Amino acid sequence: MTTDMGRAQHLAKHEARQRLEHERSSRLAQLRAIEESADENLQAAQTAAIERVLEEIDAAGMRLNDGSYGTCRGCQSVIPVERLEILPYVRFCVGCQQRAS
Predict the structure, then answer these.
(1) Contact assessment for residue 92 and residue 100, using Cβ atoms and an 8 Å cutoff
(2) CATH 1.10.260.40 fits 4-100, yes or no
(3) Of 2, 33, 54, 86, which residue is most buried, by most CB within 10 angstroms?
(4) Please, are residues 91 and 67 in contact by the beta-carbon 8 Å criterion?
(5) Beta bridge partners of 78
């Protein structure tokens, strides 16, 4: 029998996985649309940006699998759920992200 805490973590992991899958699908759709663009310079820049986000999404999936998802890679604090809802692949809390920029 699972505890309420275990169930809550499982639901959060399930929701995080759904958000990551949605982000991945959205970015792949953007790539397909960009490929139809006639402007090669714009196409290359947009493709590179989306590919970076896809790498971040994949890395977030790995963190989800190894149990480190939702922990800031800078200060090791918990990333607020609200931030993860907006950017489910984010690696840093707001403070560490600002220092890294």
Answers:
(1) yes
(2) no
(3) 54
(4) no
(5) 71
Place of tokens 């896809």: 54
Query: Tell me, what's the pLDDT at 9?
Result: 52
Query: In whole angstroms, what is the distance from residue 9 CA to residue 89 CA?
Result: 17
Residue 83, Cα to own-chain centre: how many angstroms? 10
Quote the distance between the C-alpha of residue 88 and its chain's center: 4
Q: Most confidently modeled of 9-23, 26-40, 47-61?
A: 47-61
Q: Specify whether the CB–CB gap between 87 and 22 falls below 8 A.
A: no
Contact between residue 89 and residue 56 where contact means Cβ atoms under 8 Å apart:
yes
Is it the case that residue 53 has pLDDT exceeding 50?
Answer: yes
Q: Give CA–CA dist 75/41, Å, rounded.
A: 38
